[in-house]
Amino acid sequence: MSYERSVSAPSHELSPETVWHIQMPQIRFGRDATDELAFQLRDLGVEEGAHGLIITDETLSDIGHVGRVETHLEDAKFAVDVYDESEREPSIADIENCLAFVRDEKGEEGYDFYVGLGGGSCMDTAKTTRAVIANGGGPLDYIAEPTGEGKALDESGPPLVLMPTTAGTGAEISPVSILSVEEKEIKEGISSNHIRADAAVLDPTLTTTLPPELTAKTAMDALGHAIEGYTTHEYDSLLRPTNPRERPVYAGRTPLTEMFSEKAIDLLSGNVRKAVHNGDDLEARENMLQGALFGAIAGLTAGASLCHAMAYPVGNKYHTYHGETIAVLTPASTLGYNAASDPERFASLARRFGVDTTGMSTNEAADALKGEYIRLQRDLNVLPSGLAELAGITEDDVDWLAKQTVDTQARLLRCNPRPVTEEDVHAIFTDALYNWEP
Ligand SMILES: [Fe+2]
Q: Boundaries of each Fe-containing alcohol dehydrogenase-like C-terminal domain copy (predicted)?
């Protein structure tokens, strides 16, 4: 039990946590689940004639997914507008553009419902837009101090349904929206159960168009959620908040999240090669989408840790994709540094990844996991060999990255299963410059 770790739950008695909780949107999964979107909306109370907005991006308009969803909704007697200017890794300005679109079209009231269609960036744009319209003001009002005003979201707003077209981020079920604050070169999250979607509709037929490189990158994010969730601290290592409302949204692993992590790791590690090398393999795509969902249910309830904390400063400064950043950092952070927090658990993960650990000591088996994970990445042919190849990062950049991680990512670092100092983070970044010889 650690008092330190519980500072995110400010009001508590000094007694250990005994309760865990999971909150999820409604989930509808499977081939052509898109055809049930209108049913899903009606189930959430949206009535015939209601006017909704699809928040998406240009690529998805061009390849026809947006048209498919739009036609389906119009056939079901809804009125639909489309905002297809979501940007990758959205900034405050990107969100403000979407807010301006909504306010121009529908005033402060906004639309009757929202559909976020796309990868994590489109879904985060949709989540943030709906929340800000419902609560008023701008995105910075709801980002934690000192960057923002740190106001709490009181309202969820009208129904929001998210439809992922990548198997990775978990934004469709997560209680967080990640935004980049460009002038400060940081990424910040708005974290609240009010920002969570009401439903997620996951249709693997929307994911076959994802090119190999993005398939690999998003898969590494999904695997990261599963592994970080599996290896984070246990929920009962925290203190119990006096008011259940103050229980943190990332509250540690539970028997339920562990079950989802295990299944997610099996699905993702067993299908990623097929999905990357043959994008039309619908069965592999379906397994990946399911694996990513399960990884998110686990990791984004239990909580991401060190690797995600280190990824945000990298992504913001070098504009790298979240998934490839996670890919590059996972061996040194989650599988390297953190393995010492519970070698037994990492050794069991090695076996889950297919390593034959016969005759190995626990520590050797835990180390072998890192090797196996790197082998998986190399098999995919499209991932960078380290931070150096990712964005030309050198040893000279590591000071800034380490300081920035410690200064801005306390929320995630506090929950890391092994205590971590700036010096440690420095060493891990250095280790991640080269995971293999490029
Ligand atoms: Fe992630």
A: 253-432
